[in-house]
Amino acid sequence: MFSSLFPLVVVALLGYVALRSHYVSAQTIGDLSKITFSLLFPLFLFINIAQADLSGIVSYSVFLTFYAVVISTFIITTLLAARLFKMQSAGGAVFALGSTYSNTIIVGLPVLISVLSPSVAALVFLIISFHSAVLFGATSIFSSFATGNSFQLTRFCKGLLKNPLLIGIYSGLMVNMLGIDVPGFIASTLHLITQGALALALFILGANLYQYRLAGNYQQIISATIIKLIVLPLAVLLVARLGFQLSDEITLILVVLTACPTGVNAYIVACQQNSGQSLVAGTVVLSTLMSVVTIPLWIYVLQTHLFS
Description:
Layout: H1 2-20, H2 26-50, H3 60-84, H4 89-100, H5 104-115, H6 121-127, H7 131-147, H8 153-161, H9 164-177, H10 184-193, H11 197-211, H12 218-243, H13 248-259, H14 265-273, H15 277-303
């Protein structure tokens, strides 16, 4: 397990050191981010999903375990934020987003490929296909209560359709479900172009940790981090084991996906809602640092069947 996760940590650490030592500039990281997440990663997601064998690899119980727990945790966390931290609807929704939105693609996917095998990618893509849409939508709906503005579904959907990562996921799913064969020369070209997408994403993640700061209400940041790294994956584990008796491999996948640190996109949503920016930025940093310890612990717990 250590040998599988060590390269991922090293690549992220290189990104952090490169920016901190001014070996690369913030502008360079910004340009790399634009290329990686607007071009390379969408193409990576598209070709891998389009060519994945999705027949019989997922059932309603897998989706229900993942999304029912994530949505329930989001709602409960929003309500708790109002009671414990006296947050209004917008602040509580952003707090809940920081506590439940996982960095599934940049962290979860390479971790699962390293620990299990590349074949799990197809299932991971399917599970997370609605992850951003569901949580960003829930945040917008709850935030609209505070501003008095109605939730505009059309505007929200247009925003999602402009997200390059979601475009890659959904276009790949469409090609796969329609049974369209991607020509070999196109597929090989896309695989070559996107070969370094995961490594670049991890490098950028490490660099972003230097740019974000642990600032603001530390009690809220620590609370959101605990919910994200411990409470949420524990709830998924219990539902997967006790509720649906899912297989060991499926349970491991679901737990790791929910045990991932808070995704950077949550900070973008916080900026759009103009609420909780420092809270989410701090949660991204702290949860990412702590996940270096907690994700291996969750994998150890599951592989040694401590919850069986």
